[in-house]
Amino acid sequence: MAVRAQRRAQTGPLERILADFETVAAHLPESIVARAARRRAAEQLRQLGWPSHDEQWRYFSLRALDRLGTFIPAGAVTGSASAAVAPVASQELAQQERAQQELVLQELALPPSLPGFERRVYVDGMQFSGDAMPIQPRALEPSWLPEQRLGFLGDMFAVDAAVLRVSGAAAIELVFVTSARASGTAVYPRLRLELAADSRVTLVERHLGEPPALTLVCATVTAELARGAQLTHYRLQQCGRTTLFCDTLTARLHDEAHYRVRQVAVGASAGRTSARVRLAGAAAVASWHALAVGRAEQVHDCMLKVELAAPRSRSDEVFRGIADERARVAFSGHIHVEPSAPGAEARQSLRGLIEGEGEVDLRPRLEINTDDVSAQHGATTGRLDDALLFYLLSRGIDPPTARALLKWAFLSDVLRHIEIAQLRTEAERSAAGQLQDVLAVGAVG
């Protein structure tokens, strides 16, 4: 046993991932991801290889994955990572899972439900509460970009999925919780959105939990918006510091569809978002507003690629990041305007604030292949504005309060776009909890 553990510790993450996959591949549920699709994902990951010196993976703590006990899903582990794995889909195991989840949920302090929203709770990637929807495996799983390659892990290992097929109007809250039972393993939340023509959906996606040992949360999200569909997608990542969090998202918009994202990242020891949004239909609109606040040695990294592929499509990106103490915050925004998109509009505003020995890296990129386009972008990184600080001090405001107010105004560029009052208050408190001076002066009610 000791020799096996030593050999495992000496192998790289990719070799460990593929070995863990072979251990459980035969037992993973066909209804979630078809077995052939899982195999294709494993082969594609093998061909791409593990990220190393790629600029797009410069910040996410890939080396921390070496300390992970296993990549096998928490719900599929019996005993230790090297123990035999029971069939995930068996009725007996499902009953055991439900009993364990009930105990887990009793110990978790979930935020209050949002008024008017249907809530569904997932524990360690498996549904605990809320109405389940029939799941059919898709004939074609998403094709992830090289900078999205961790999405293949979700295709390989997922044991459950949140599937939302909406026609009409809906308000839904999904809470993904990582429990202590998953400690030292991995969980694979999976979300699939399919919006019918002219539907109107408000979706809140939360990620919570603080297992006692290092745990990987690897989420995948796919969204298809039919003609005229509107999706407002709030995403809050509030995991504990023992979590390595990565989420991989792909969205496709048809004619006149509108996708609004409001993303807040404050948790995990290292967090990574790899997103691709394709505006495939005429007059489709994508609006992505995100903030990340890191302190101590946290890492928050986001890669967003928006492809404008149809006439009159529009993209609007806003990012605000604060790196305090020794934290690192990065945002890579790639806007690609294709020749098939005359009349396209693209706006990008990226700003980073450095405190202490923190580091902020903003990488805007515009790739335009048509003359009929309106595009603008700006990226600035630095410390608090001395002129504004002096102005506040000259009005009799003490230095700690002045600094706190400027930080809060900086983040409000994103927070004010959270239109659900209860959710905005929670996001404000989470962000303020990362900034001790803001918390100290009571900038948040």
Distance linking N and C termini: 54 Å
Which spans have pLDDT < 50 for at least 5 consecutive residues?
1-7, 77-88
Radius of gyration from CA coordinates = 22 Å
What average pLDDT do the residues reach?
87
Helix content bin: 10-25%
Q: What letter string, H or E per element, gives the SSE order? A: HHHHEEHEEEEEEEEEEEEEEEEEHHHH
Class derived from helix and strand content: alpha/beta
Q: Give the beta-strand count.
A: 19
Strands side by side in the biggest sheet: 2-1-4-7-9-11-13-15-17-19
Number of domains in the coordinates?
2
Question: What is the global morphology?
Answer: globular
* Discrete helix count: 9
Per DSSP, what share of the residues sits in E-state strands of 2 or more residues?
Answer: 35-45%
What is the makeup of the main sheet? 10 strands, mixed
SSE inventory with pairings:
Elements: H1 2-10, H2 13-24, H3 35-48, H4 91-107, E1 118-123, E2 126-129, H5 151-157, E3 162-166, E4 169-177, E5 186-187, E6 190-195, E7 200-208, E8 215-225, E9 230-237, E10 243-253, E11 258-265, E12 270-279, E13 285-294, E14 299-308, E15 314-323, E16 328-337, E17 344-354, E18 359-368, E19 373-382, H6 386-394, H7 399-415, H8 421-433, H9 436-441
Structural description of this entry:
This protein has helices at residues 2-10, 13-24, 35-48, 91-107, 151-157, 386-394, 399-415, 421-433, 436-441; strands at 118-123, 126-129, 162-166, 169-177, 186-187, 190-195, 200-208, 215-225, 230-237, 243-253, 258-265, 270-279, 285-294, 299-308, 314-323, 328-337, 344-354, 359-368, 373-382. It is globular, with a radius of gyration of 22 Å. The chain contains 9 helices and 19 strands. The protein has 445 residues and is of the alpha/beta class. It folds into 2 domains: 13-279, no CATH class; 385-445, no CATH class. The protein has a 10-stranded mixed sheet with strand order 2-1-4-7-9-11-13-15-17-19, covered by helices on one side. Helices cover 23% and strands 36% of the residues.
